[in-house]
Each structure stands twice: as structure tokens, then as C-alpha cells.
Design brief:
The structure holds 3 protein chains of 3 kinds. Chain A is mostly helical. Chain A has 11 helices and no strands. Chain C is of the alpha/beta class. In chain C, helix 7 runs parallel beside helix 8 (about 185-205). The radius of gyration of chain C is 21 Å and the shape is globular. The chains are: A mainly alpha, B mainly alpha, C alpha/beta.
Chain lengths: ~300, ~300, ~325
């Protein structure tokens, strides 16, 4: 197990390097710079601003400098918010996004697993077709449609929640639902498939021959196998929740990292973009590792690779 | 009386008549009413969208870019069947036009991801050993990363032209296709029927085309059909962020974004595009599911 | 009173392509401590019979259309799920054909072994583990203390089957149903497994219902044998009598097909034709189309297996009526 983790950590380093390099060159080589949209400033002022941030040096030198800073954990200053460093902005904004992501994932798992398991037990009945049709709907309604719809229904018409903001615990509900809906649907289908697959296997029959009750069979015999496809999906799900948060944060006015990232990209806020990208990459990689560990724990056959 | 050993054709003994794999599959698909419904809807919708110029000219009477600033946003009426947007443009015309773009993005991006995925997966599958290991490990790592971030960066930095959009979105989706193709090639390579074909003395080409490829097509078709809705969702997502299709061109994603902005006062501007997109995705998913059942494929996605 | 009496069992499968009558009127008895073999080719209904008794058939599409399975005075077919669960695994145990797929790959052997004890007896986990370990040693798994914490895929085929046997016998059942326990194994391992079952049977004094398509296996193991064809009983007798005083053309044909009994150089004996399509079973004796002793009235009446000698039943019309010499 430890070797497995060590190997994965080692693999991460070249990946992060490539990401950082690719991002760096993509940004620098793109047309437009961070100060193009400023109000009409004179050439000298602009030159001075660029020199201040080291943007006048040759490209390769800038690259090495950037790498050096990154290794020291210094993500640089932000162009858009000159008084704050990228580290500070991320430290403020990330916990918000993290909370949103966790809540959405909780919603997705709770709804999805429940629906999927029930559907697999009552295959081809109403309790199968109905949740699965709802799930299909969830897959086809994009987040940025679901959001406004939910706001319109529950915040504007029923007045149960605020339409935007992130101040009260209540404010978490609609964004979490919006972000989690798609994944709940996906997980429901995966869980149903996984459990159905398991429930038709021979060893379930053996368990029945032993006199095990339905609940026991479901919880002890079927659970691990049935959860496999869901856990396999967790990796890409986390990546997806991350990108989905960009939209949700925009719609609900949530001060999360996603919003900062997108704005930074538009504003050519180099350091902010680099910082966010790397931060996300590390985060996703770590979570994927956790998901893979969970997968190996669930499926003993994988433990001997 | 000694029983004689004779070989009779299976049919003479009452077995079912044989049918080709594809005929069988089509038969199964046909029985799945939901999938056929989806297929029909998609077909009709595609027809309408791609006939948009004609329809606009002869049936609707307005083109997608014709503005009517005096009218402004108006609810559905006799003149404008689905209403108009903020600039007085006919919504139905814009929906048809946007549909053309959305569907085209869906098809082209899927084609891109298909091409990359199939080539990559086939190489990995055929090669085996170290090359396969390296290639698939790369896929594993890439799979975990939020590709979308890079697409966002790409679109922001390098401008929004449609071709770049196809390539970028296609580049997100190729990973799963590569995995599926590689898995198929690997398992088929070792299957007994390939060995049997070799034992019968068939040439490599014949084995490849008459035996391996037909077995690969199934999952590929299924996955391609299921990729199109994902791609369309991605396009809508990018458009929502302002990164996808740019005016004066339009797509359902752009229309949804415009509609969402004015949702409270002019709900029809959000409802109709959202409805159309959801309906299309719905039908594509049902069709994909139906194809999967008909071709009896166990994809890695669901 | 016999331990298990099966009376007129009828099981069908209702599929979209029609109704398949897999078991059509099967009756037999097993006494305490007796070993009974059920022999038949694929599709004869032997496995379905046992699954019906154990209640392991999913009730759509399967349906038990009639009959009883009276186990120690109680009709298993009439029990509720919960009542059945109290009998299964405790007094009535079953082992299956393919030990790889029949063991749960996600659970350790220890957990699977202790499960019947934890379900059916009031016993502490520690005690259950001790008994599981003892059982594992009993069935001949080397280094049992270490192996018990492993997963099924770490065992070989033969050892997995031993684990299954241990799992089935740990509650000391009165009847063990063994559905083709050796079919998936190598020939040498087959003999070992059968010996093991024989040994355990001796120690526990339990009855065994052994299902097989292999006459040789049944011959070496069982006191009595039933021959099934197309869901009906063709012949039932004590083993020796079945072989030396065969009273049904099908059984005779099966014996003749055993390659070892043929003279070298002669063509192999086969039974012409194919088993009937159970969707549309023709009237009369199901073996009639392939039988070398067939006469016209064979295809008209369905014959039940009737005693033609003491303790020896046959469903052949000609044997019953004319005492046909076979």
C-alpha cells in the first residue's frame, strides 16, 4: 500500500511540472497582456508596471523565475487586486469552494446511492423506472439551467431561500442541490448498474442458500461490489464538481475560487491563473489518490497488483 | 439396431434460423420504443435545424439575425411563434440556427474525440507491454485532471473560433474512448475465436476486418452516441461563461445564457432553449442506452 | 419417514419466448443418511429441481407450478421467505458447481465461513472463528490458520471447493445438496473432493443429494440413483441395480455411450437426435423420438415412473407392460 502511494506521489511531480509549464507558455504566448484593459495609460507607466512584475525580461528567464517561486510556495501577486497576493486570495476563496463541493458531493452520494440501490432491488418496477427517469432528466438539464430554475421556484416564488449570497447556512441549500443534481443522477445510474450486476452473481445465490436475510445480503454481500462503479467515478466526479462550481458560484454570487479563476483568466492575471491551476491540480490529484485507495480497499482482487 | 451418426443442419432439428449480428441488434433496438422515439426526435430536429435557412426564408419569415429594436423582447405571438429576444430577434429562428451550431459542435467534437481515442487506444491495445502501460498510465493521470480548466484557458487566450472549439472539446472526451478501444482490442486479440480463425488459416487482414472490428464497433457506436450529449453540455457550459460560440453566431448554450440573464421578466427566453437542449440530450441518451442494450455492450461509463 | 420427500414437483420458466417446463412431475425420497444421485444431461431439469427445493429460483421468471418438498415433515415450498431462511444453511445446505463464482470475492474466507454460524446459532464471534478454523482444517486445507484470512481468489479450484464444503457443513446439516460439485475441477481433484464429501458424510451422518451428468461419479458415490430426462424421472433404483438390471432404454443408451466400455476400433456409440425443445414438449414419453425400442403408443401417453421391481421404478411403457429385456 505504501509503495502504491509513494509511486503515485512520484508520478505527480512530472505532471505538475508539465501543467505549470503548459500554463505558463499558454498564457504568455496568447495575445493580450494583463494591462491592456487598463484605462489609457501612457507607454512609460505601462512599461514601469510591467518591469515591476518582471514582465519585461526574456521569456525563458521569466519561466525559471516562476518555477523558482513556485517551489518556494510563493504564488505571486495578483494584478487585479494589487494589494493582495495570490496565496491570500486562494486562502480566502478556496474554503468556500471546498465547502460547496463537499456539500454537493454529499447530496449527490446520498440521493444517488439511495435511488440506485432501491432501483436495483425493485428492478423493472415503478421504483426502478421512476427514479431512473428522474436521473435521466438530471443528466440532461445543465447546471446553469437548474440553478436559475431552482432560484426562480424556491427563492423567488416560494421565498424559502435567498436568491444569492453565502451568509447563512440556508444559503448552502440551493447551490449544493444545483451542483450536485447532475452527479446524483450519474451516481444513481452507476449504483443501479453496479448493484444489479452483483445481485445476479452466483455468490448471492450462495448467500441465500446459507439462509441470509435480504438486508444482510444487501449490506454485507452486495455493497462492496455494487459501490465499485460509484467509487471509480469519484475521481472524474470531483474534477467535474470543481469545474461545475465555476458556474454555480457565478449564478449564486458565491465568493469561491472558481469565480476568481475565471475572472483572472479573462484579465490575464498571470499569477492568479497559474496559482489557481496548480492549486486545483494538486487538490484533484490528492483526492483522486484517496478515491483510488478506497477502490483498492473495496476490491481485494486489486490489492495484489 | 445401431444408431447412425449423421450430421444434420441445425435448422432441420428445430433450432432457430441464424441471423447476422447487426440484424439481430437492429431487431432488438426496434423493440425498444423509447430508443426509437429518441432516434426519431433527433432525426426530425436535425432535419429542421439544418434546413434552417430555407425554413427561415419561406416559413417563419425572419432570419436569426434580423433585429427589431422597436419591438424588443416580446412573448410568443402570431407573428413570432416563440417570442423575441432583447433585440427583437425571432426566437424560433435563433433556436433553429443555434441548433444547427450546437448539433454541429456535438458531431464534430465527438468525431475529434473518436478519432484521437480510437487511434490511441488501438495502438495501446495492439502494442501491449511497456508501450501500453505508459500510454494508459498517461490516460489515467489525464483522466483525473479537470481538462475543462485547460479548455477554458485555451478559449480565453486564443480566441473563440469554432474549429478550436471542436478540437478543444473533443480533446476532453477522447480519454474514455481510448480506454474502451484499448480494452476491446486487448480482449479481442486473445479471444479464442481469433485463435480459431488463425487455426483455419485466415489472413491477418481478414481476421482484423471480419472478426475483430465488428466486435469493436458496438461499444464505439454506443460511446459515440453517448458522447454527443456530453459534448453539447460542455459547449453550453463554455458559452455560459462567455467562452464558446460568439455573436453574431449563436448556439443553444448562448441562448440559454441570454435567457438566464433575463429569466425573471422574460421567462420564455430561457425556457425554450433549455427545453430544446434538454430534449435533445434526453433523446440522445435514450438512444445510446438502447444501442447499448441492443448491441449487448458493457461500456465503462455506466 | 424419509428425510426429504419430493412429490410431483413442477417448475416452469415464463420467458418472453414462451413457457419452458423445466421440471415436469419429479418425485423421489431420501432417507436419513442416504446418498441419492440425480443423473441427467444438460437441460434435464436436475439443477432446477434442487434450486426449486431450496427456493433459490427468482420467482419471476421461474414459477413452481405444483408439488411438494417435505423436509422432516415441513413442506419447504409452502414456507415464507423468513421461515425458509431458518432452514436453509442450517439443516439443509447446498454446494454449487463453480466455486470461483459461488464464493464472494469481496469477503475473506473467515467471514464467509463464520456467517452460517452467526446467522443460525447464538454464538460469539470468537467461538464462530474457532469453529471455522477447525472446519477448515477438517476439510484438509493446509496452513489453515493463515489461509483463513485470505480471499477466495487466492485459493486454487480444488481448495475453493473444500472451502465451500466447509461452509456448507459447519452447521452440521441433515441434508447436503451438491450441484455438480466436481464438474469444474480437474479429474484428480474430483476424486479428492468426492472422498472428502464421503468422509464428512460418515462423520456427520448426513444425507447427500448429488447431482451430476457423469455416471461414473454417481456410481462411485451414491446408494441410489434417479435418471432424469426432459424434466421427468425415467428410472430410479439402487445404484448396482440401475447398472446391472437397467430398466429404461435411456439409461441403457447412456451406459452404452461411455467410451471406456467400447471395444477398441469400433465407432463410438451415440444417442441420435437432440433433447426435446422444452418450449414445445411433444406428448408422450420425451425420449420416444430417440429411443431404439419405441412403439406407437410411446408418443401418446406420458408415463409416470412405476415400480417394476422392488425399490426399482421405471417410466418406460414397454418395460411396465411387457417387461422389455434391455
Amino acid at each position: 500500500m505504501l509503495r502504491f502511494i509513494a509511486r503515485r506521489v512520484l508520478e505527480t511531480i512530472p505532471v505538475l511540472l508539465i501543467i505549470a509549464t503548459a500554463t505558463f507558455f499558454m498564457m504568455r504566448l496568447a495575445p493580450g497582456g494583463p494591462f491592456d484593459t487598463e484605462k489609457q495609460v501612457s507607454k512609460e507607466v505601462r512599461a514601469r508596471m510591467e518591469a515591476h512584475y518582471g514582465l519585461d525580461k526574456p521569456l525563458f528567464e521569466q519561466y525559471l523565475l516562476q518555477m523558482k517561486h513556485l517551489l518556494q510556495g510563493d504564488l505571486g501577486p495578483s494584478f487585479k487586486y494589487p494589494k493582495r497576493t495570490v496565496n491570500e486570495i486562494i486562502a480566502d476563496a478556496f474554503p468556500v469552494s471546498l465547502e460547496l463541493g463537499c456539500e454537493a458531493l454529499a447530496v449527490a452520494l446520498a440521493l444517488g446511492l439511495l435511488a440506485g440501490m432501491v432501483a436495483s432491488l425493485k428492478q423493472n418496477s415503478f421504483w426502478d423506472h421512476f427514479p431512473m427517469s428522474l436521473a435521466m432528466l438530471g443528466l440532461c438539464v445543465p447546471t446553469f439551467v437548474m440553478g436559475p430554475l431552482l432560484i426562480s421556484a424556491f427563492a423567488l416564488h416560494l421565498d424559502w431561500f435567498n436568491a444569492a449570497g453565502w451568509f447563512f447556512p440556508r444559503d448552502r441549500v440551493l447551490p449544493a442541490l444545483t451542483l450536485g443534481a447532475y452527479y446524483a443522477a450519474y451516481i444513481a445510474r452507476l449504483a443501479r448498474g453496479g448493484f444489479l450486476d452483483i445481485l445476479h452473481q452466483d455468490f448471492i445465490r450462495t448467500a441465500q442458500a446459507k439462509g441470509a436475510s435480504g438486508a444482510r445480503i444487501l449490506l454485507r454481500h452486495a455493497m462492496r461490489g455494487g459501490l465499485l462503479p460509484v467509487v471509480s467515478f469519484l475521481g472524474p466526479a470531483i474534477a467535474g464538481l470543481l469545474t461545475g462550481s465555476f458556474v454555480v458560484e457565478t449564478i449564486f454570487g458565491i465568493p469561491g475560487l472558481g469565480r476568481f479563476f475565471v475572472t483572472a483568466a479573462f484579465n490575464r492575471d498571470y499569477f492568479m491563473v497559474m496559482g489557481s491551476v496548480l492549486f486545483y491540480a494538486v487538490f484533484v490529484i490528492v483526492l483522486n489518490l484517496a478515491a483510488d485507495i478506497a477502490l483498492v480497499w473495496l476490491n481485494p482482487r486489486l490489492r495484489f497488483e | 439396431m445401431k444408431a447412425e451418426l449423421t450430421l444434420q443442419p441445425a435448422e432441420a432439428m428445430g433450432a432457430e434460423p441464424s441471423a447476422s449480428f447487426w440484424k439481430d441488434a437492429w431487431h432488438r433496438l426496434w423493440k425498444n420504443k423509447l430508443a426509437i422515439f429518441g432516434l426519431a426526435v433527433i432525426a426530425i430536429m436535425s432535419l429542421l435545424c439544418f434546413a434552417e435557412p430555407l425554413l427561415c426564408r419561406y416559413v417563419i419569415g425572419y432570419s436569426y439575425e434580423q433585429q427589431n429594436l422597436a419591438l424588443g423582447p416580446a412573448p410568443p405571438s402570431r407573428a413570432h411563434w416563440l417570442g423575441t429576444d432583447a433585440l427583437g430577434r425571432d426566437l424560433l429562428a435563433r433556436l433553429l440556427y443555434g441548433g444547427r451550431i450546437s448539433l454541429m459542435v456535438g458531431l464534430c467534437a465527438t468525431a475529434v474525440s473518436l478519432t484521437i481515442g480510437v487511434i490511441y487506444g488501438a495502438i495501446a491495445g495492439f502494442a501491449g507491454d511497456k508501450l501500453d502501460m505508459v500510454m494508459m498510465r498517461t490516460v489515467d493521470i489525464l483522466y483525473a485532471l479537470p481538462f475543462t480548466i485547460f479548455v477554458i484557458l485555451l478559449m480565453v487566450f486564443f480566441g473563440q473560433n469554432l474549429v478550436l472549439l471542436f478540437v478543444a472539446i473533443g480533446a476532453i472526451e477522447w480519454l474514455t474512448m481510448a480506454r474502451i478501444v484499448r480494452g476491446q482490442v486487448m480482449s479481442l486479440k486473445h479471444q479464442e475465436f481469433v485463435e480459431a480463425a488463425r487455426a483455419l488459416g485466415l489472413r491477418h487482414g481478414r481476421i482484423l476486418f471480419r472478426h475483430i472490428v465488428p466486435n469493436m464497433l458496438g461499444p464505439i457506436i454506443v460511446y459515440a452516441t453517448l458522447t454527443v450529449p456530453e459534448v453539447m453540455l460542455l459547449e453550453a457550459f463554455l458559452s455560459f461563461l462567455g467562452l464558446g460560440v460568439q455573436p453574431p453566431q449563436s448556439s443553444w448554450g448562448v441562448l440559454i445564457k441570454e435567457g438566464a440573464e433575463m429569466m425573471e421578466v422574460y421567462p420564455w427566453l430561457l425556457i425554450y432553449p433549455a427545453l430544446l437542449l434538454a430534449l435533445t440530450l434526453f433523446c440522445l441518451n435514450f438512444l445510446g442506452d438502447g444501442l447499448r442494450d441492443a448491441l449487448d455492450v458493457r461500456g465503462s461509463k455506466d | 419417514m424419509p428425510l426429504l420427500t419430493v412429490n410431483g414437483l413442477q417448475t416452469s420458466f415464463h420467458t418472453r419466448a414462451g413457457v419452458v417446463r423445466a421440471v415436469r412431475d419429479v418425485s423421489f425420497e431420501i432417507e436419513r443418511g442416504e446418498s441419492l444421485g440425480i443423473v441427467g444431461e444438460s437441460g434435464s431439469g436436475k439443477s432446477v429441481t434442487c434450486y426449486s427445493i431450496m427456493g433459490l429460483l427468482p420467482q419471476p421468471p421461474a414459477r413452481i407450478e405444483g408439488g411438494q418438498a417435505i423436509f422432516d415433515g415441513v413442506d419447504l415450498l409452502a414456507l415464507s421467505r423468513r421461515q425458509l431462511n431458518q432452514v436453509r444453511g442450517r439443516r439443509l445446505a447446498m454446494i454449487f458447481q463453480d466455486p470461483m463464482t459461488s464464493l464472494n470475492p469481496f469477503l475473506r474466507v473467515e467471514d464467509q465461513l463464520t456467517e452460517p454460524l452467526l446467522i443460525h446459532e447464538k454464538i460469539s464471534r470468537a467461538d464462530a472463528r474457532r469453529r471455522a478454523l477447525a472446519m477448515l482444517e477438517e476439510v484438509g486445507i493446509p496452513d489453515a490458520a493463515h489461509r483463513i484470512r485470505m480471499y477466495p481468489h487466492e485459493f486454487s479450484g480444488g481448495m475453493r471447493q473444500r472451502v465451500m464444503i466447509a461452509m456448507a457443513l459447519i452447521t452440521k446439516p441433515d441434508l447436503l445438496i451438491a450441484d455438480e460439485p466436481t464438474t469444474a475441477l480437474d479429474v484428480t481433484v474430483q476424486a479428492q473432493i468426492l472422498e472428502l464429501i464421503k468422509k464428512m458424510r460418515g462423520e456427520l451422518g448426513m444425507a447427500v443429494l448429488l447431482i451430476s451428468h457423469d455416471l461414473g461419479v454417481v456410481c462411485g458415490f451414491c446408494d441410489r440413483v434417479i435418471v432424469l430426462y426432459a424434466g421427468r424421472v425415467m428410472e430410479s433404483a439402487a445404484t448396482e441395480e440401475l447398472f446391472y438390471q437397467t430398466k429404461h432404454p435411456y439409461t441403457r443408451a447412456l451406459q452404452k455411450s461411455i467410451p471406456a466400455l467400447q471395444v477398441k476400433g469400433q465407432p463410438l456409440h451415440t444417442i441420435a437426435g437432440m433433447p426435446p425443445d422444452l418450449h414445445h414438449a411433444p406428448p408422450g414419453c420425451p425420449f420416444a423420438p430417440r429411443c431404439e425400442y419405441v412403439v406407437e403408443s410411446c408418443s401418446r401417453q406420458e408415463m409416470a415412473a412405476v415400480e417394476v421391481l422392488p425399490g426399482h421404478r421405471s417410466a418406460c411403457l414397454r418395460v411396465q407392460q411387457e417387461n422389455l429385456p434391455l
